[in-house]
Amino acid sequence: MTAAAVELPDVDAVRRRVTTVLDRFLEAKARTAAELDLPAEVPQCLSDFLASGGKRLRPLLCVTGWQAANATGDLAAVLRVAASLEMFHAFCLIHDDVMDDSDIRRGVPTVHRRLAQQHRDGRSGSAADRAGASLAILIGDLALAWSDELLHTAGLTHRQLGAVYPLIDVMRSEVMYGQYLDVTGTGHSTPGVERALKTARYKTAKYTIERPLHIGAALAGADDTLLAALSRFALPLGEAFQLRDDLLGVFGTPATTGKPVLDDLREGRRTILLALAAQRADIAQQHVLDGLVGSPDLDPDGATRVRDVLEATGARTTVEAMITARYEQALAALEDVPAVPGTMATLRRIAALALERTS
Amino acid sequence: MTAAAVELPDVDAVRRRVTTVLDRFLEAKARTAAELDLPAEVPQCLSDFLASGGKRLRPLLCVTGWQAANATGDLAAVLRVAASLEMFHAFCLIHDDVMDDSDIRRGVPTVHRRLAQQHRDGRSGSAADRAGASLAILIGDLALAWSDELLHTAGLTHRQLGAVYPLIDVMRSEVMYGQYLDVTGTGHSTPGVERALKTARYKTAKYTIERPLHIGAALAGADDTLLAALSRFALPLGEAFQLRDDLLGVFGTPATTGKPVLDDLREGRRTILLALAAQRADIAQQHVLDGLVGSPDLDPDGATRVRDVLEATGARTTVEAMITARYEQALAALEDVPAVPGTMATLRRIAALALERTS
Question: Which domain holds residue B32?
């Protein structure tokens, strides 16, 4: 089958169709829960979470990877795999919010906060908070299990399953190791730019960009040459994506990012931005960073003082320059990807989408 | 292939061989972590957890289910599926301990406590506790992902995968819904024997006994008649298993159960035992239950007063009687299981093992 024989959906159509797959899947789960008299709030929470936003970046990259490798096979199955990546991402974010004890995600209360609220009746405040965290852990666990269900019920051929599962396994391990590095680094006094870059590579560059592209390409039988070429595009783009995220976490506008701007600083997350600032800070600046970053009581004035250090040390400017350099490196690598021509434009568009974002 | 053509391993051999599969798998994960300079403590923690105990009940039931259905196909693949159930169980227990904030499991510190200790350096006590909980959530997540990896790399035929995955999907959802019911019921003032029985059915009877048997049987191509017959044995046995667990949680000896005897009472877990006591308590007894069950400060004297109420209301005796009735019901159902004759003795042995336990 040649690329021309398949009607290729555009970015908006992919988003719409992936959302439909997720909706149908969770509607079926809601029906099962109703039949067995099990808590309806479980599928409802996931459904609301998925409806609350998200750029569907990983599904888009998955479908584009498939197109890049000549789009052979069944589009419906590819869309279901793409949807399974979005469900997997819901799992990651729900657990991430529990671990960070975040209040807000995508402009609305996080899953554990919402559930604490729903189960406040008859419980003390702290008991309700604990119940909320426990229930969110379980809903995240189900999202992981259900992402696998979406995958193995996608109707893939035996050959496709054989090509895709090793990549899925690697992706799952990589993102969890990346998160592990993030947690062990956070709030700890050993920053280090190298360590922060490694964390970004595992938890974001590979997970968000490289593996979704690989998984899609593998569905169309891509060989190692194509996968390696896609990596040369994906990894710098993914690092740029994380660097942008770090900047937004400190300098972003809550109204557009959908999350409080003080969380990253309060949490003491060892981003590349902070690692650079710590590396270059004079004694007074170091004092500001040590005293305020990672402090649960950080207030807006304190955050302004930290931002001033990030500016004065040139850390912000360096990170902006790193983003630009990686973006250009990714676009240059794209020239050498031996993919179906039409997909280049889509990959460029997704690259821009990933970086020129404000949320 | 007839049953006689396959050399059937006995209970101890199954345990040993499943443990070997898990060891080899985690050794490979440790090598990968070393090669990529990722935290060695991740596979190490899981490896230590799996080595710390566990009766390997689910793997035993899986292999026995396979034998009951005539043991056709590759034993090595069946053992790998059995090992994947044990890895899945590690995931359940690690997350369960985070949710319950338990200190001890199998006589040693729980995973989150151990990790909090390992990452105490440079952190406040509460920050270390939070890091420990986050890392244990991630290690549990990996155990879930890796249980799936063990499963889909087991070398199953396309037909076996088709027969087994729907049961795996159902098992995963059932246990998480069961836990969800447990959390929403815990610490809440709506006990109810019916609700407690339903929780036990989902989080234990189906998960621990019925589905492992079904999964094993499905690997040998069991039909619905055999699966239904196995359910009639498994569900009463599984309920009896949970009832025994409830008794051990209150009347057990920490030296043999490997966990503190006050946890269930402090947590305010709405067991069938407590639901029965609440149903029958007079005003003074109700006062004891309301005041002490679910109190984080419960001391040994308070626990003795609660135990006295559980005895005086006859709740303990009733639960003992319920265990006996269910055990007998399970054994009677076994007579009608159209399985390979030799497996009956094994199922009876596992049933006794599950119930006459002290841990």
Answer: 3-355
